[in-house]
From TrEMBL:
This is Lipoprotein.
């Protein structure tokens, strides 16, 4: 059995422990008890997030781009041809060359309006399923009058004739890069 002195000592220790915990709880609650601090916290929580700048993902899905762009009130779109060159040709080593994909991709205007000055074609992406053919360097770009630009590509993948591919062209206009796409372009075969 415990003596009276031991009970008193245990009771006193418990009271000190409870009192210490109470002071600690008051210290943690103190900022929210201050009306100015509580009001500032409420304003911060209710403030809209619109002031935070939007960060775009590192890679944007180019296939979500439009099929028509408007450059200085001129609507432009792609008119493309894809084909496999199967003409009988003998290579330098005596072998028959493979059927490589060729592309003629035109940036065309609607309503017979001239293409705005300063439009540049930066790159061309041709895709079929998960395979892609990218043309960026040494692009053969020609002006076809005032209403179109054409870029030609040769030596692409050996995709089957009769299948379809999607095309995305990145253009530079007035310091801004824009992407226009054309979907389901038929791959023909030339004999």
């Amino acid at each position: 059995m415990m003596g009276t002195d031991a009970k008193a000592l245990l009771l006193a220790a418990g009271m000190v422990l409870v009192a210490g915990c109470g002071e600690r709880a008051q210290d943690q609650e103190a900022p929210s008890q201050d009306p100015a601090v509580a009001e500032e916290l409420a304003v911060q929580e209710a403030a809209p997030v619109e002031d935070v700048p939007v960060t775009l993902p590192a890679e944007i899905d180019i296939w979500q781009s439009p099929q028509e762009l408007v450059l200085s009130d001129v609507a432009v779109y792609l008119g493309s041809e894809l084909w496999l060159n199967s003409m009988p040709v003998i290579g330098d080593d005596g072998s028959q060359p493979a059927d490589k994909l060729h592309a003629s991709i035109r940036l065309l205007t609607r309503d017979m309006k001239p293409l705005p000055q300063g439009v540049e074609i930066l790159q061309v992406m041709v895709a079929q399923g998960d395979q892609q053919w990218l043309g960026q360097e040494n692009l053969d770009v020609r002006s076809e009058g005032e209403m179109s630009l054409e870029v030609s590509l040769r030596g692409g993948p050996e995709w089957p004739a009769g299948s379809k591919a999607d095309i995305a062209v990145t253009v530079l206009y007035q310091g801004q890069e824009l992407i226009v796409v054309q979907r389901d372009v038929l791959i023909s075969q030339v004999f």
